[in-house]
Amino acid sequence: MKRNLNLCWLLLLIFVPVLIYLSFKSRQTFKHYEELRKDLILSEYRIKKYVYRFNRELYTENLTLRDLYLTDLNNDTVPIKSLVTSSKLIYRFSNQSCSACVADDIKYLRELGDSIGYQNIIIISDYENTRLLNIFRNSTGINFPCYNFTGSFNLSIETDSDIKKTPFFFLLDEKLKIQYAFLADEYPELNEIYFSRIRAFFRKGF
Amino acid sequence: MKYPITIITVASILFVLLASCANRESGMDKSPEEIIINIDDKNGALLNVSIKDVIPLETSQNSLIGYASQVKYFNHRFYLIDKNRFQKPTFFVFDEKGKFVWKTIQGKGPGEVIEPYAFAINEEDSVILLHDQALSAINTYDLNGNFIYSKKHPNVFIKDFYHINRDTFLVYNCATSPNPSPKGKTQFLTYTLFTNSFTKEKHFDILLSNNKVSMDLFTPVFINRDEILFVAPWNYNIYHLVGDKERIRYHLSFGKYNFSSTELATLSSDELREQINQGSKVGSLYSIFKTNHFLVFIVEYNRKLITFFQSIKNKKIYSLNDCIDSGLIPFCFNWGIKNDSTFYGLVEPEQLVQFQKSSDQFKELDINDNDNPYIIIFSVSEL
Lengths: 206, 383
Description:
The complex is a heterodimer. The mean pLDDT of chain A is 86. Helices cover 50% and strands 15% of the residues of chain A. Chain A has two domains: 1-58; 62-204, 3-Layer(aba) Sandwich (Glutaredoxin). Chain A is an alpha/beta fold. Chain A contains four helices and seven strands. By secondary structure, chain B is an alpha+beta fold. Chain B has a single domain (32-381), classed as TolB, C-terminal domain (Neuraminidase, 6 Propeller), CATH 2.120.10. Chain B has helices at residues 2-28, 261-266, 269-277, 320-325, 349-359; strands spanning 33-36, 48-56, 68-74, 77-82, 90-95, 100-103, 116-122, 127-132, 137-142, 147-152, 160-165, 168-172, 191-195, 200-203, 221-223, 228-231, 237-242, 245-253, 282-290, 294-301, 304-311, 317-319, 334-339, 342-347, 374-381. In chain B, the strands form six sheets. In chain B, strands 1-18-17-16-15 form a five-stranded mixed beta sheet, with no helix packed on it. In chain B, strands 2-25-24-23 form a four-stranded antiparallel beta sheet. In chain B, strands 3-4-5-6 form a four-stranded antiparallel beta sheet, with no helix packed on it. In chain B, a hairpin with a 4-residue loop joins strand 13 (191-195) and strand 14 (200-203). The model of chain B is unreliable at 22-28 (pLDDT under 50). Chain A binds chain B through residues 75, 95, 99-100, 102-103, 128-132, 134-136, 139-140, 159-163, and chain B through 64, 66-67, 84-87, 269-271, 273-274, 277-278, 333, 348-351, 369-371.
């Protein structure tokens, strides 16, 4: 009887720690799988987000922009066709765009301006009036040509459903044909790839 | 024998008292008043609008305003926040004639701010409370800009806030609710009542769900001696603060242009905004004001902000936009109540020049496109 009791105690002493260890391990495994599942959901979301962005860019490619009338810093109206005597990089942002994002894009544009020439970059915003555009220009210290256009470009890349008003870039040639449409991205690496293509375009001149 | 009579008498008195208390309670809980608006009404009557004064806000290197997101009037001064992030966000004060009085300085020293985001005026103590979003602190100044003290509140999210009384603030939030929806999804708070130096909070049951986040509203809260009204995003109700509880005081009905409750619950902000921009639905309430004569509210529709005045006397609805389109008043991008009979509004110089040309008024003003915004003082009445 005493021997059986001792055997029971021994078994308990062995199995209880083993059970505790297995339980801990399964919780760790569960936690790990939970993390993986969340990463997968996030990845799926990111994939959907980038597919959506890619489609917006793709459906804008090779479209012809209608001849818009912009407002310059002197409050004069200027047809966009008169500005693109050769291909220009257009940067479009909204006064509702994330200002930190715009500030970052301006930094890229300055570097780009050093290599392709400042005259080849045009900034178009949608400020309600020239005063705000002037304040933007003076605050950022930029010397690119800046214009206002409060309407919509009617391009897929600029949609009503984008309440964040993501800024975007595109090349516009003298026939108002659009190439290299690109939504500004939070990842610097993606922006760098885009800008290197733009540099190559202006170097090769086609 | 007399005891039962005594008991019955006392019981009757108690019953009457309880019944009257219940009635008083149900009196406060009366059904919200429905305001029916025909947004398509092109032949609406015009209000009688009269501009009393045009005040140029001093334009100098030291007082240059970018985008004034909030403007309030108190004690013969105009207070506004410039949230233009390409410049340093700044809190400005101008006197009643538009002369620059003082502004905040950027920094982390005493009285300095990094990102002034919202402000409230404590009229009882005549002080200004300025919320610095970057430092998660509220700085208190007197009306001459002298710094009094600063208090940190790292766990309080503020988009806008209003001083109710003593140590009580109504805060318009943008924070995650501690309680998820019944289906376990994240919800966002809109309003919270804070007391005890922002340590005690009571969240209102006006939540946003399905990835909708609150956005900047212009003047979502109206406070006077008699009542406190406020509006919330993606919501057609005008709420009334009673003690520490919210009640729906008014409900706006735009007919087929209202989003249904299902649409509001299931669609994201992007999807709702698309319909508003296309003119198929009326969107959020942005502002609420009330005078002795009018209830005033601003809604978003078809890429514009539409300002409605409802007569308190006869419930008739007017659109201030009709008056703007008719050239009676220039477009004001931000405005408020100066006293019961007059309003103030911020006008861009470009808009004022157009108004000068179309109305032949204020021709003596020499307005430059790059001037600071102007303040117009105007009165509104029914014809």
